[in-house]
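Model: Ready when you are.
Researcher: Fold this.
Model:
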Amino acid sequence: MSNRNIVFTIGSVTIVATPRNTATADAIIAALPIESSAQTWGEEVYFATGVDATLETDARAVVEAGEIAFWVEGQCIAIGFGPTPISHGDEIRLAARTNIWADAIDDVRLLKSVSSGDTIKVDWAS
């Protein structure tokens, strides 16, 4: 596992993140570079990766802003930055339990400007 950062380029937004030391992070890193198309759901951006992973013991649906999640069933990276249609109050509740595999260095609220269909690229930060 490398300590190098990865960069998400989503439309005009760039988010740098540090991978955690997890099996999910290893699987995603092995698949880099990833190119996909953004989907939005409330204040969440998610996108297909084609990566296979299993649900980890500490998986959860409620995340903190800045935690980068992986939705196992959908093979998608999910980045929540505010309430979704199933949130209670201001919490960031994703559609299912997810593996938290990275932490954003940049403010994920910048993703508010992302639209469904925007191109996403995930690769090593230079």
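Researcher: Now this one.
Model:
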Amino acid sequence: MTIHEPMTMATDYLLSAAALVFGISLWRASVRPWALAFFFTAAASLAGGTYHGFLPEHWLWKTTVYAVGLASFFLLSGAVVASVGGVTQRMLLTLAVVKFMAYASWMITHDRFVNVIADYGSALLLVAILQIFAWRNRRAPSAPWVLASIIVSILGALVQQSGLTLHRHFNYNDLYHVIQLVALWMLWRGGRLFTMSETVRPTSRPT
């Protein structure tokens, strides 16, 4: 069996394994929406690695782009639940659903990875705004890690789109995966620092 892009496949699989481990950790810490975001990231990286490595099938690429869309949806939803409550929370969760539906509809007839970056990037922008809000209001300990992760993710996206190649066996996709691995680690650190002060407590019922 011929492996077409071995380094891209290897770095994708590494990213998938890391995302899975981070997701399990967040799930055990009861940060469930973000855990799901990491699980879908793991699925996307696994599918993407297989696509680049030895199975360049269209359905596999569609699996990758939709898994990334679900990852960005759960990432944004988790940040909303952790940062705001009440009417604002409901409005932003509705926005997250509408955003995912628009992305899913668009990607039916489009395949370019720049669309994936645009969707994930817009989710990260909203997450950044929410975490800045949480930092200003209560010095949320997760905010510095999440914001640092977003900056690194933006850097990775710029590298991927630039076509920067360090070596003929280590291209812009490979470098993007390595940068995203660092960003995922920072995001995991931020998610682990979500505390009860950052989650919406259930309203107490009168006895």
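Researcher: Key takeaway?
Model: Residues 58-83 form the longest helix (26 residues).
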